[in-house]
Amino acid sequence: MQEVTLLIDGDIVAYEAASSVEQEIEWEPSLWTLHSDLDAAKAKVESRLLAWQERFAASLVIAFSDSVNFRKTVCPEYKSNRKSKRKPLAYKPLKAWITGQRKDQSPGTRAEVPVVQLDPTFGSPERPLVKFNPLLRWTKKDVWSFITKHDVPYNPLHDRGYPSIGCEPCTTLPLDVVIDSYGLTFAGASRPWRKIRSYKTEGDHIEVGTWPVLNDRKLRIDEVHQRIQRYALPYQAQLQKLIDTHHQNFGVCYHINCHSMNAVSGKMGEGGAGISRADVVLGDRDGTTCNAEFTHLVKDFMQGCGYEVKINDPFKGVELVRAFSNPAQGKHSLQVELNKRLYTDATGRGKGASYDKLAQDLQQLTAVLAQFAKSKAAK
After folding, report:
1. Alpha helix locations (H) across the chain?
2. Under 8 Å CB-to-CB from 52, ≥6 apart: which residues?
3. pLDDT (tens digit, 9 = 90+) per residue, 242-268?
4. Is the pTM here over 0.90, yes or no?
5. Contact assessment for residue 312 and residue 337, using Cβ atoms and an 8 Å cutoff
């Protein structure tokens, strides 16, 4: 379903609502007054915006004019005939302050916040400030899904662990983590950065960023949820979009999920610790996520390059391989595990002696798989 975004002229909405709540009261033949119900005007604005949002299942972009009008630089007399016309009494107060407040940011204090509200702090009795909160019902997942899908620029401090960015009290790292010129400090003890995947889409590519990882304790439940919402779900959504798009265009799609594995198993590994692993392990969940032709094409090529290759032993494939595959519909997903000894040295941090060979072999494999996929694409 195509996503809909409504671009709304906020001036017109405010003008109509303000006009509709005015009332003339005649006290006597020579005395009358004009009254305006600001609360009623607010309710009309909120009702109209929510109705549009629900009717069209759309997100809203609301534009208000300000003191700078580019039209007047072209035509200084623009709307000069309206100077003598009175605007509705409630029009100026309804020119709103649009915020990014969400209920899930602070359930204790924002649970009852309305979509349209009067702000007592920055407004005044003579000219109350109206705040419009269009994202009030959005969750953090909704925000990051929108950012990922539409490639919206965001503050890079989010990638460094800052949950909120704004005023000085809000712009702080969670827990007792402090950034200094040398890296991360945890409770006074210097710790290095450790990379995990943070995803920002650039066309069909996925850019890897960094996140501070706590090495001296287990993650809290809220930290786990934060990383799932921030990284895993947006990445999966983008990957699903790419697969669906290519499948729609070509009638078939081949997805390769690459991993690395230790040279030998640990104590929690298959069959216990100390078991040497093959150079390459292919996982298709016992033939359910990828057709055998594609799996054996990869196996035969890598064996021809001199590598020991096993299928589904010991790794059959992770959840991503299952979730994004449907061989009957032409969606194939194969997990490829590469042994770290093929490309790292004894420390596990530097390039190994066979690094360049592996890189060259994988480049050739990519070309072979691309040719295979083209041959299977719908004509």
Report:
1. 10-20, 38-55, 70-74, 91-94, 107-110, 140-150, 221-227, 233-250, 292-304, 319-323, 355-376
2. 6, 8, 58, 60
3. 898 888 888 999 999 999 999 998 876
4. no
5. no
Q: Tens digit of pLDDT for each residue in 4-57? A: 777 888 788 888 888 888 888 877 777 778 888 877 887 887 788 778 877 877
CA dihedral for 218, 224, 230, 235, sign (positive or negative): positive
Pairing relationship of beta strands 309-311 and 280-283 according to DSSP bridges: parallel
Q: How many residues belong to the chain?
A: 379
Strands 331-339 and 253-261: parallel
State the Cα angle at 192 between 191 and 194, rounded to 5°.
Answer: 125
Classify the C-alpha dihedral 272-273-277-282 as positive or negative. positive
| From the candidate CATH numbers 3.90.1300.10, 3.40.630.40, 3.30.460.80, 3.50.50.60, the one assigned to the domain spanning 252-379 | 3.40.630.40
Report domain extents, the chain.
4-138, 139-250, 252-379
Dist CA 178 CA 130 (whole Å): 37
Tokens standing for 308?
A: 């020991």
